[in-house]
Amino acid sequence: MRTTTGYRAVDKTAPLEQWTFDRRDLRADDVAVRVTYCGVCHTDLHSTRTAGDFPMVPGHEFVGEVTEIGSAVTAFAVGDAVAVGNIVDSCGTCDMCAAGQENFCREFPTLTYGGRDRHDGSTTRGAYSDEYVVRDRFVYHRPDNLDPAAVAPLMCAGITVWEPLRRWNVGPGVRLGVAGIGGLGHLAVKLGRALGAEVTVFTTSAAKVADARKLGAHHVVVSTDEAEMAEQTGALDLIIDCVPVEQDLAPYLNTLALDGTLCIVGYLGSTTVDFIDLLIGRKSLASAGSGGRRYTQDLLNFCGENGIVADVETMPSARVNEAFDRLAANDVRYRFVLDMSDLPG
Fold first, then answer.
1. Which residues contact 223 (CB under 8 A, 6 or more apart)?
2. Which pLDDT tens digit goes with each residue over 261-272?
3. Does the 158-287 domain belong in CATH 3.40.50.720?
4. Are 143 and 151 in contact (CB under 8 A)?
């Protein structure tokens, strides 16, 4: 076993505390990664404060360097710059895995933390730590020209919006809408603009109009303004909805053109829709989540070629509880990233 230092939650009320624990010895197809930066996702906050199998080590969007490889690994070498996301294994044989969509694995993918290891049944522990051991198929080559701290959120927030951008062939001539400009939405704007789309941002706050334009939006609509929303009737081909709470979908469906699609990636709970809002214009309601291996490396390659990273605030890992408190208060633009170099490992 390998001794690792990280941060754990012991229950849903206690602050995270430093903890020393064991990682597995490398299997033949494993890669050991020295974790340098780990993003703070809202899922981390939710898992540690409202649910979860404790003790829990969060963290599922991280970057680092390869320190050791298993005997069967050929795609990586010691010293390689790499990134890992929120999936670390899958069955590899179902129709979804065969299509490169391991995020939809029929047997459910193994998550980076709180998941079940497919070999020994142990619970996976996340990357709020100095090292992570992961199957090589779920390790990705990281562009050397990008700020590593700002790459980390691409592995969760970035891939979550990238898959629908690719699925609906967003590019020149496509009129793209993005609802909400938080951790997910700000990357959807940057990526959509770089793909050549005409980007419209929907925000509930007039104070965010300038921010949306800085990110690359061509148009900004205050969604609480009925007149502004009415002006957008039939104006968009695709909307990526990054809002993390339940909302009325009718106003957004109204802004779609013929055969337009509203893709929800921010809110994963139940909701209702009036089918007349879909019928008029032959519109579609869709969803997506996380990403498979094919699209994940595709995202990193695209970002490297176009100089795209997340807007981040980096802080020492010892301040993780401050990051959680501020994230809960929505006090971040647009992603916290922990610098893991202050750990003693």
1. 179, 202, 203, 204, 229, 251
2. 999 999 988 999
3. yes
4. yes
